[in-house]
Backbone:
C-alpha cells in the first residue's frame, strides 16, 4: 500500500510540475510578445517601414527566447497610427508542448459592428 501511495504522489507531483512549466512558458511568451509589439509600434510611429519594425519585434522576442510566427501592420481609416499584431511561439521546457500567443500594440480606434 505504501508503494501505491508514493507512486500516486509522484504522479501528482510530475503533473503539477508540467502545469507550472506551461504556465511559466505562457507568461514568458505573453511578456515577450507584448514587448515586441510595443517596440514595433514605437518604431512605426517614428516613421520606420513595416519590415524594419517587424524585424525589431523579432529581435526583441528572440532575446526572450520566443520565436515570431507572424507580424502584421494594420492602418485603419484616416489615422496615421498603425496597429501591430504579433504572433509568437514558445516551446515548454522539458515537454513536447508549445505555447502560442498573439499581442497587439498601437493605435486603438473604436471598432464598430
Residues:
Amino acid at each position: 500500500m505504501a508503494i501505491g501511495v508514493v507512486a500516486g504522489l509522484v504522479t501528482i507531483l510530475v503533473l503539477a510540475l508540467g502545469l507550472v512549466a506551461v504556465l511559466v512558458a505562457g507568461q514568458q511568451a505573453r511578456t515577450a510578445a507584448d514587448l515586441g509589439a510595443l517596440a514595433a509600434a514605437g518604431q512605426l510611429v517614428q516613421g520606420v517601414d513595416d519590415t524594419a519594425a517587424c524585424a525589431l519585434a523579432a529581435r526583441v522576442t528572440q532575446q526572450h527566447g520566443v520565436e515570431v510566427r507572424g507580424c502584421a501592420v494594420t492602418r485603419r481609416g484616416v489615422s496615421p497610427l498603425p496597429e501591430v499584431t504579433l504572433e509568437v511561439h514558445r516551446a515548454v521546457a522539458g515537454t513536447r508542448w508549445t505555447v502560442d500567443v498573439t499581442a497587439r500594440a498601437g493605435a486603438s480606434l473604436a471598432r464598430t459592428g
Q: What stands out?
A: Helices lie at 2-45, 50-62.
